[in-house]
Amino acid sequence: MGFWSLFPVASTPIVQVLLIGLLGAYLASGYSNLLPHSARRDMNKVVFTVFTPSLMFASLAKTVTLKEIISWWFMPVNLGITFLIGGILGWIVVRILRPPRHLEGLVIATCSAGNMGNLLWIIIPAICEQDGNPFGNDKVSGARGLASFSMAIGGIYIWTHSYSLMRNASKIYHASHISCHAGVIERHGNDQRVSTDQENMLSLPVEVMEEMADNQIDIPLLPNGSLHGEKVNSWDKMKETLHSIVEELLAPPTVASIMGVIVGATPWLKSLFAGSSAPLRVVEDTVKLLGDGTVPCITLVLGGNLTQGLRRSVVSNAVIVAIVCVRYLVLPVIGIAVVRAAYGLGLVPYDPLYRYVLMIQFGVPPAMNIGTMAQLFDVGQEECSVIFLWTYVVATVAVTVWSTVFMWILS
């Protein structure tokens, strides 16, 4: 399959994302004002709790089997490598360019977390449907299964690793915001009085206080590591850490991915949901119908946030260029080396389509779910929109070029 014949296939999903994003920008602009900040925030909550879990469960329960999961065992390892190397490169970018502290998590997340589901779900089957592709036209069903499995495993990484990064960034951002309005409680003997700064905090608008409560912002510890003078021992810190890990693993998208894998890998459970004669087919169809709204909603919100990012942004051009270089220059080259080494060691089967998916996981733009997290935690929304604008514009060419290179290597 030649370069120019591949170009429309690889660029179509990226162009679709940009077009829907432009629509979201128009809806959020003053010309329409149908998608204000409050509406985008509420839409993201629905995407997080309903649409994304539905998409993951429906895709996995229908297309994945136990045999395929066993044969695809290297994919979780491959995705872990992308997150590990991308995270290291993102940390280096942060150390060198030193963006504002509350944006460090965003930079690392965009370098490490790629669009492992939504984009691959469109690209991979579309390539297999083209005549003359190196994988064969009979691979469309397998392509959907690979895309679903990639989305599920990538979703688990994103909703744990990236979710933690964005939540910590939110705590840093809102803690610094609170410190501008609140003072510490001053004690004089047995009498207690509230400082002027804390009175100012208590007089903040109700909307601001509700926003702080919605984001579950913790009060910063005092310099001695205690809260209101109470020392926090190592056992309490350990319990807090375990609680955070469990909370991240119990995020709706992660739970839905695990349930989808279990249903898909268990024949008698799968027969209840998937198939024309399945007794619970209506449940599968309903969940799939809900999941179909994930990509449009995420992309509309992304475009809506872009209207804010164009007006003001703290992220520098150097940071944007660094993220683009990490995602489209360094990671794809490393991906080729990793997959070829794994194939040489016998860790990956001959299947060219499977190896293509492993390679392209290194060359996709940042995960759109990062924008959902920025909206959920109310941190770096404008900066995230600007980063996404340029990374997805560059992806129109970069993903096409790397797709051609990967298929040339595998043909």
Automatic annotation (TrEMBL):
<keyword id="KW-1133">Transmembrane helix</keyword>
<dbReference type="InterPro" id="IPR004776">
    <property type="entry name" value="Mem_transp_PIN-like"/>
</dbReference>
<feature type="transmembrane region" description="Helical">
    <location>
        <begin position="353"/>
        <end position="374"/>
    </location>
</feature>
<dbReference type="GO" id="GO:0005789">
    <property type="term" value="C:endoplasmic reticulum membrane"/>
</dbReference>
<dbReference type="GO" id="GO:0080162">
    <property type="term" value="P:endoplasmic reticulum to cytosol auxin transport"/>
</dbReference>
<feature type="transmembrane region" description="Helical">
    <location>
        <begin position="147"/>
        <end position="166"/>
    </location>
</feature>
<keyword id="KW-0813">Transport</keyword>
<feature type="transmembrane region" description="Helical">
    <location>
        <begin position="70"/>
        <end position="94"/>
    </location>
</feature>
<feature type="transmembrane region" description="Helical">
    <location>
        <begin position="318"/>
        <end position="341"/>
    </location>
</feature>
<protein>
    <submittedName>
        <fullName>(wild Malaysian banana) hypothetical protein</fullName>
    </submittedName>
</protein>
<dbReference type="GO" id="GO:0016020">
    <property type="term" value="C:membrane"/>
</dbReference>
<feature type="transmembrane region" description="Helical">
    <location>
        <begin position="14"/>
        <end position="34"/>
    </location>
</feature>
<keyword id="KW-0927">Auxin signaling pathway</keyword>
<dbReference type="Pfam" id="PF03547">
    <property type="entry name" value="Mem_trans"/>
</dbReference>
<dbReference type="InterPro" id="IPR045033">
    <property type="entry name" value="PILS1/3/4/5/7"/>
</dbReference>
<feature type="transmembrane region" description="Helical">
    <location>
        <begin position="106"/>
        <end position="127"/>
    </location>
</feature>
<dbReference type="GO" id="GO:0022857">
    <property type="term" value="F:transmembrane transporter activity"/>
</dbReference>
<feature type="transmembrane region" description="Helical">
    <location>
        <begin position="386"/>
        <end position="410"/>
    </location>
</feature>
<dbReference type="GO" id="GO:0009734">
    <property type="term" value="P:auxin-activated signaling pathway"/>
</dbReference>
<feature type="transmembrane region" description="Helical">
    <location>
        <begin position="46"/>
        <end position="64"/>
    </location>
</feature>
<comment type="similarity">
    <text>Belongs to the auxin efflux carrier (TC 2.A.69.2) family.</text>
</comment>
<comment type="function">
    <text>Involved in cellular auxin homeostasis by regulating auxin metabolism. Regulates intracellular auxin accumulation at the endoplasmic reticulum and thus auxin availability for nuclear auxin signaling.</text>
</comment>
<keyword id="KW-0812">Transmembrane</keyword>
<keyword id="KW-0472">Membrane</keyword>
